[in-house]
Amino acid sequence: MPRIPCRVVRRCAAVHPLLPLLLAECRTFDEARREFQWLVDGVPPGRRRLARACLARHRHVPLQYILGSQPFGPVEIRCRRSVLIPRWETEEWASALAGRVGPGRGGVPGGVPGGVPGGVPGGVPGGVPGGVPGGVPLRAVDLCTGTGCVPILLRAEWAWAAAAVEWLAVDCAPAAVALAAANERRTRAGRSVGEIRVVSGDVLQGPADCSAVPPRIHLLTCNPPYIPAERFLADVSVSVRVYEPRLALVGELHFYRNLVEKWLDRTDSFVYELGEFKQAKYVRDCIAADGRLNKMWSVGVKFDSAGKIRCVYGYRNDATLDYKSIYQEFGNLIYTPRL
Ligand SMILES: C[S@@+](CC[C@H](N)C(=O)[O-])C[C@H]1O[C@@H](n2cnc3c(N)ncnc32)[C@H](O)[C@@H]1O
């Protein structure tokens, strides 16, 4: 990492004596000044509080733990130590997904606004809300939910959904379950949106371990720990390494194998965040090699705006909803079923 030139330190000090403290994390004058303003705006008034916040930043404490929140799509997600801070990469795919599901999407002109459980007049197979034949609500399950940011964003974006979606969020860390539940309540307050049930469970045990998981899932989302242990020290910044939970970060193929072995039969579609192509390839190869799954599933990958592979997704081609339309342009297909 390049050293910070003295002139940058002096330039910061000329603006405010606390500003140089931010250089340890920010590295440049512009970054430090921008962050300083966020701290001035976000920390309760008082010089000592501001100094404490700058000192914490000097010790690489993540800004979101100091300020207590992170904007995520249209919502503000509360952040606490011991729970992973939501990232822009996740926000990006979750927002893209949100935009693919809803009235007029899923291949149905007009779709079904305001879908409610029990069926909606005009509910059309292939549409999404209320369009599931039989009038069942759309069932969305988020695994490894952390702060609950993914389902909370989807719920905020799906204004049409009201009570038409059944939500479930699962995490095994008590701090994450408590924070996701608190974020869920705060972002629901006073609005007519469905509750996201937040439950404690070990995703690796599969749905059988968690009685709250519905018998059929329409949309399974997950941002699992996916940084290989040997890359953790080399690739991850001090701030993340020291202050964010290792349980949320370190993994390799575990959750992708677990998807194929334990969750695929329970869901009609999935979106899993990942860090490398190898993880998407693993899912694709498992599906392609299985004589039953390879006739049902399409698999695709999505890149983020920085050009890095970011998700593997898939959908059943024999499902009740028109997932082909929903996922069209979400990413690029890398496997289509053998007929
Ligand atoms: C990468 S974080 C994702 C958090 C959140 N979804 C997000 O995108 O910011 C992974 C989460 O998985 C949880 N986790 C790790 N192993 C798990 C397991 N076996 N079962 C359930 N949750 C697990 C961690 O506690 C952590 O909250």
From TrEMBL:
InterPro entries: N5-glutamine_MTase, SAM-dependent_MTases_sf. GO terms for cellular component: mitochondrion. Gene3D superfamilies: Vaccinia Virus protein VP39. One of its GO terms (molecular function) is S-adenosylmethionine-dependent methyltransferase activity. GO terms for biological process: translational readthrough. This is Methyltransferase small domain-containing protein. It comes from Huiozyma naganishii (strain ATCC MYA-139 / BCRC 22969 / CBS 8797 / KCTC 17520 / NBRC 10181 / NCYC 3082 / Yp74L-3) (Yeast).
